[in-house]
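Batch manifest, entry 17 of 40.
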Amino acid sequence: MNLWLGTQMAEVTAGRIFTVINYSWDFIESTFALPMALQGLARLQEITTRLNSNELISM
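Output type: structure tokens
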């Protein structure tokens, strides 16, 4: 859809088409990376919880 809209502009250049494709590709890549980032955050929260509970037990 983005590429089609980009080609309908009045003064289309190769640079503008490349920019639309590049930004669209970056968006797709970021949606694939999001689950990995959320998994890493969940792991860090779990580790923090375990460390905090061990500190209470050892005191």
